[in-house]
Design goal:
Length: 317
């Protein structure tokens, strides 16, 4: 198993033992199939127990798993004839957000999202999935393109938040995010958003203001990272587990609160254990959502989206 998480240590030790026995079995005449079978059953049970009762902080760790599928993995698996479109036509290109035109199940769409990268080189190239203002202004350009040509818009969210560097603030980070939300609310095409990993702060909501918002089972969606929250409230990142619990960032919490519209299940052990199964589940959910939204006229789609966000957080006195 690659890149095991801290709480998976007992499981990792079992899986390592199974691999050792398999190697021994293939290199000797000793028959140890029964022992391997016994350990496999024990490993499966442990995996089920671990992932059936994930704490909020453990869910954060799974959502951030380095082997978890990222934006480009979904593009390669689900989108035909993807043509990326670069630049914001104002300042420059930001590879933290990738977007363009493609076909999903035969339907032409505009699709965009944050890309984190899988290794040091690609993570540096994509800014660790934390866009600068030009990334959000590129997103606005693609949103308007979708609206102009009456193409459904699909967004995949996976970011710890907007870029924290000084020059991002100097170039109007907050304004770029706010404009993204404003543009999203005014679109007259179906907008579907899916949180595939981290949905962090305004960096996420900028491209997640949609008619329907879904989350993968082990993804997270919050106003601030647990570490950031702990630093503000307790003046120490050590309280990150307590902060994660208080933020109500798990998918089932957000569904109960009405922030999201549905949860897409993941394979036991997380999306990184069986990406092909995740791609199939996501594809099916997006297709069903798209077909339901395409029945509505443009003005209704816009009104539904606006009312959705006005209603979130309302309290009956």
């Amino acid at each position: 198993m690659h890149n095991p998480l801290d709480f998976e240590k007992p499981l990792t030790e079992l899986e390592s033992k199974i691999e050792e026995l398999r190697h021994l079995s293939s290199s000797t005449d000793v028959n140890i199939a029964e022992e391997i079978t016994r350990l496999q059953k024990k490993s499966s049970k442990l995996l089920h127990n671990l992932y059936s009762n994930l704490t909020p902080w453990q869910t954060v760790q799974v959502a951030r798993h380095p082997d978890r599928p990222h934006f480009l993995d979904y593009i390669n698996a689900m989108i035909d004839d993807f043509t990326p479109l670069a630049g914001d036509r104002l300042f420059g290109e930001d590879a933290a957000i990738i977007g363009g035109l493609g076909r999903f199940k035969g339907q032409s769409v505009v699709i965009l999202g944050q890309e984190k990268g899988h290794d040091t080189e690609s993570r540096m190239k994509h800014g660790f999935g934390m866009p600068k203002p030009e990334g959000y202004r590129k997103a606005q350009r693609l949103m308007k393109l979708a609206d102009h040509y009456r193409l459904p818009l699909i967004t995949l969210v996976d970011t710890a938040g907007a870029s924290p560097v000084t020059e991002a603030e100097e170039r109007g980070q907050a304004e770029a995010i706010a404009r993204c939300i404003e543009v999203s609310l005014g679109l007259e095409v179906p907008v579907i958003s899916l949180v595939i990993g981290e949905g962090g702060s305004g960096g996420a909501i900028a491209i997640a203001t949609a008619n329907q918002v879904f989350m993968l089972q082990n993804s997270i969606y919050s106003v601030i990272s647990p570490e950031g929250c702990a630093s503000i409230l307790w003046r120490s990142r050590e309280n990150r587990e307590e902060a994660a619990a208080a933020l109500r960032l798990k998918a089932n919490d957000l569904l109960k609160l009405g922030v999201i519209d549905g949860i897409i299940p993941e394979p036991l052990g997380g999306a990184h254990r069986n990406p092909s199964e995740v791609f199939e589940s996501v594809s099916q959910a997006l297709e069903e959502s798209l077909q339901s939204l395409l029945r509505y006229p443009p003005a209704a789609l816009k009104k539904m989206r606006q009312e959705k966000y006005i209603t979130i957080g309302s309290v009956s006195l």
